[in-house]
Specification:
The protein has three domains: 86 residues, no CATH class; 198 residues, no CATH class; 161 residues, no CATH class. Helix content is 44%, strand content 17%. It contains 18 helices and 13 strands. The termini are far apart. The relative contact order is 0.09.
């Protein structure tokens, strides 16, 4: 007859190792302090609204409204307008207290539906299609018109910016005396992806242009004329909670738990419990990740602390890579891609920059070139350079490629093989398949500066940067010479 006993199930070696790691993690003083800092009650977090774009835009519209139930009067909207980038800052009219503010304003046939803003039918229609509404719209009489398109992580889609711009301009009536402001609000302050609209819309960020004026207003305390006596504790609690939420979402250094996380990552290495936790989340073992998450959820603030450490790790490493990229990518190299501003893409693992040299640009132009360099700056201390090019067989049947391009695409690296080998070592990988039926040549891989001693390495030393600069210039110069030789040998 079988009886119940108190024996614990036998753990496999991997499970035993992870259990030991989690025990060390939970007893780590720094991790415990971070968990405690993240355990403060915040209704936005409880409701899961931290990154819910619609809730942020509605809160912003409420703050901008002089007649809002916050009883701040014009205190926030004045600071908001004064803090805008040069050229558009301080353009608010004297009678801001008469401003009409709309959230999720419907747009139909490039016309602002001001009279239907609160219509249930319109609200239901626009709820299903966000491309038909302006996130925040402010108008003062017929003299001031402000539209804000806000994003939390996403990009604009379709021709919505053009649609909104034309609707606002139509509402303004082309009056020379009217002020029209079009603001594109994102987490990083990036310009619109659509080049045609990037000049019309002013790029601003949640951190510099929403969080900053809100913080300044709260720190300044009650001001004359802002109905301060009517605010009440509920409003102040709400504003404090929203301020903390913005600090967390924007990665502000004013967010106390982030400061703790940064200090931990700059002190710890990957051999300790915090490093082991991060390596588990970076790995491919889904079962190990699930077990670790379950263990973290058993500790108050544990999972939130782990998620913050991952986000801060990625951000800090990204900053090192961005600074390194700005120092090794020459000004005369033309960056290509969807955003003309920087042409670099971030991921959890690296910063990628696509570019062509002046020689390549002269041969192919810069709009969807047949081949280009991709610089992949890894988060630790590795840089990889690839030459991406389209497979000639992928070209349309009725399209004839110029001879130099066709020759380079099947380049066997016969001439100059010894020089090329010295530059690329054993990392030459001709014919590596890449997305969209292309071919990628893994040209060279460089490790610099030695292994990092902490989870987030400091910025590389000048001598390490010079080494990378010299190596990259030699590789690119070699390819340029090859292109020149091909251009001279075979007419386009």
């Amino acid at each position: 007859m079988l009886t119940k006993c108190n024996m614990k199930p036998m753990l496999l070696p991997a499970q035993l190792q992870q259990t030991t790691m989690s025990e060390e993690l939970f007893s780590h003083p720094g991790f415990s302090k971070l968990c405690e800092a993240l355990s403060v009650f915040n209704p936005f977090e409880v409701l899961g609204l931290e990154t819910y774009e619609l809730r942020h835009t509605k809160t912003l519209a409420w703050l901008l409204d002089p007649k809002g139930s916050h009883n701040l009067g014009t205190a926030f909207i004045e600071r908001f307008l004064q803090g805008l980038p040069a050229g558009v800052a301080g353009h608010g009219p004297a009678n801001l207290d008469e401003a009409r503010v709309f959230s999720e304003l419907p747009v139909r046939n490039k016309t602002l539906m001001l009279g239907e803003a609160s219509s249930p039918e319109v609200a239901e229609a626009t709820e299903k299609d966000s491309s038909k509404r302006i996130d925040v719209y402010v108008q003062v009489d017929s003299t001031f018109f402000l539209a804000i398109e806000a994003k939390i992580g996403a990009n604009e889609h379709g021709d919505q910016l053009q649609h909104y711009r034309e609707a606002v301009q139509k509402q303004a009536g082309g009056s020379a005396s009217a002020t029209t402001l079009l603001l594109y609000l994102t987490l990083d302050g990036a310009a619109p992806a659509q080049q045609a609209e990037s000049d019309a819309w002013t790029a601003i960020s949640w951190s510099d242009h929403v969080l900053a004026p809100l913080l300044a207003m709260l720190q300044a305390g009650p001001q004359a004329g802002d109905c301060a006596g009517q605010r009440g504790p509920n409003v102040m609690h709400f504003l404090s909670d929203y301020l903390r939420t913005l600090q967390k979402v924007t990665g502000s250094r004013d967010f106390a738990p982030r400061v703790l996380a940064e200090d931990l990552l700059k002190e710890e290495d990957y051999e300790g419990p915090i490093g082991s936790m991060l390596k588990t989340f970076h790995g491919q073992n889904a079962e190990a990740k699930a077990r670790l998450e379950l263990q973290l959820k058993g500790v108050k603030g544990g999972l939130e602390a782990a998620q913050l450490l991952q986000a801060v790790e990625s951000d800090l490493r990204g900053r090192v890579c961005d600074r390194l990229a700005s120092q090794i990518v020459r000004d005369d190299w033309v960056r290509i891609g969807s955003r003309a501003k920087k042409q670099q893409r971030q991921s959890a693992a690296s910063t990628k920059i696509d570019f062509v040299t002046p020689t390549m640009a002269k041969l192919m132009g810069t709009i969807k070139p047949r081949f280009f360099f991709r610089l992949d700056i890894r988060r630790a201390n590795t840089i990889e350079l690839k030459l991406f090019y389209e497979d000639p067989q992928c070209a349309e049947d009725n399209e004839t490629l110029p001879s130099p391009q066709r020759e380079l695409m099947t380049w066997p690296v016969a001439e100059g093989k010894e020089e090329w080998a010295a530059l690329t070592g054993k990392n030459w990988n001709l014919g590596q398949k890449v997305p969209k039926d292309g071919i990628g040549q893994k040209m060279a891989l460089m490790t610099f500066g030695g292994a990092p001693k902490t989870i987030v390495r400091p910025h590389p030393e000048p001598k390490d940067i010079e080494q990378v600069q010299d190596w990259l210039a030699k590789v690119v110069r070699f390819v340029d010479r090859k292109i020149d030789a091909m251009s001279g040998a075979a007419p386009a």
